[in-house]
Amino acid sequence: VRAQLLLGKAQIAASMGKLSEATQAADEAATLAPPGSDMWGEAQRLLAASLIESGRAADGDARGVWALRPENSQGLSPPIRATLLSTPGR
Questions:
Q1: Given this model, what pLDDT does residue 38 score?
Q2: I need a labelling partner for 11 at 20 to 30 A (CA). Which of 22, 29, 40, 69 fits?
Q3: Is the separation of the CB atoms in 83 and 45 below 8 Å?
Q4: What angle do CA 32, 81, 86 make, to 5 degrees?
Q5: DSSP assignment of 26-85
């Protein structure tokens, strides 16, 4: 439940331009969500996007690539996999 709430916080913070807060919330959500789950994938996408938007494009791209590695993304649904692939900067 906490991971889901943190995802919401990350989305809201990002939309308000509070990218540091969005990055922190998405990172914590990714830690709490079950690895390879769609919730985990969405947290990774939000984290990558907030890093890219805050001027840390290399870190955001690296996070997206890491999240899409086969050993990390086996449980991701096709829609979540597609959103990770379409993260700005990818």
A1: 93
A2: 69
A3: yes
A4: 110
A5: HHHHHHHSPTTSHHHHHHHHHHHHHHHHTT-HHHHHHHHHHHHSHHHHTT--HHHHHHHH
d(CA 78, CA 4): 20
In single-letter form, the type of residue at position 43 comes to: A
Q: Report the pLDDT value the prediction gives residue 88, as an integer from 0 to 100.
A: 65
Q: How far is CA 88 from the centre of its chain?
A: 12
Q: Which residue has the tokens 């919401």?
A: 8
Length of the chain counted residue by residue: 90
> 89: pLDDT confidence band, cut at 50, 70 and 90?
low
Pair of tokens at residue 51: 């890093």
**What does the pLDDT look like over 32-80, one tens digit per residue?**
999 999 999 999 999 999 999 999 999 999 999 999 999 998 889 999 9
